[in-house]
Design goal:
This protein is an all-beta fold. The chain is built from no helices and 17 strands. The protein has strands spanning 56-58, 61-66, 71-76, 82-87, 97-99, 102-106, 111-116, 122-127, 134-137, 140-143, 147-153, 159-163, 172-176, 183-187, 193-196, 202-205, 211-212.
Length: 216
């Protein structure tokens, strides 16, 4: 298994499973090029979290999200055949997380979805935005508070993720029970401090979720 972005909650990129001494190509799947949220010509490499497909794996299923189709798809690891596909209402730009037979995907529509990993059936969904307000973003209708703080699950079974992009509009960091969708707590106050910005102009700033969270 490779259940989260870079394997675990610390994003170490290291699995305890040994790789066979000899590897063989079994199948290849070509997918359409993704469209990044931030301009392709940006020089800031911190904004490239949705530049390419980044799979996670549980059992015989490989899961990938798509910003092009706003979906999460599962593929058979032996054959590459598509097992199922679930569509959200906006692009998906951060990797999913798999835990206890469920897969969690966060979308630009402002929702976190819990799906059954075996067949993609929806367990529950949670609106991480403070209200249902839409804007145009990257030629798509998305939430004013898109889900860009990618889900991570701690070793004690707590799910963390965030919605919101610009601190002056508000950002929302959640701790949640992944089995029920019940919220443990939400931090909505550390995102709008009036402070000196790097370009020497004062303004609202703070946490600006953009990418896959890690736990240290």
């Amino acid at each position: 298994d490779w259940p989260m972005f870079r394997y675990d909650e610390g994003r170490t990129g290291v699995s305890p499973t040994a790789i066979p001494s000899t590897l063989y190509l079994t199948w290849v799947k070509e997918l359409p090029r993704l469209k990044r949220a931030w301009p392709d010509d940006t020089t800031d490499i911190k904004q490239d979290m949705d530049e390419s497909y980044v799979p996670v794996i549980a059992g015989k299923s490989l899961f990938i999200v798509s910003s092009r189709t706003g979906s999460l798809a599962a593929y058979d690891t032996d054959t590459g055949a598509k097992q199922w596909e679930f569509f959200t209402n906006a692009p998906v730009r951060v990797s999913p997380a798999v835990y206890n037979g469920d897969v969690f995907v966060l979308s630009d529509d402002g929702y976190l979805y819990s799906l059954r990993a075996s067949d993609g059936v929806l367990n529950w969904k949670f609106n991480a935005a403070p209200r249902d307000r839409k804007i145009l973003g990257n030629s798509n209708l998305i939430s004013t508070w898109p889900g860009r703080g990618g889900p991570v699950i701690s070793s004690d079974g707590t799910l963390y993720f965030a919605a919101g992009l610009f601190p002056f509009m508000g950002c929302y960091l959640y701790s949640m029970d992944p089995s029920t969708g019940n919220v443990n707590w939400v931090n909505d106050s550390n995102t709008s401090f009036y402070m000196d910005q790097p370009h020497t102009v004062a303004g609202f700033g703070g946490i600006a979720p953009n990418g896959n969270f890690a736990i240290n």
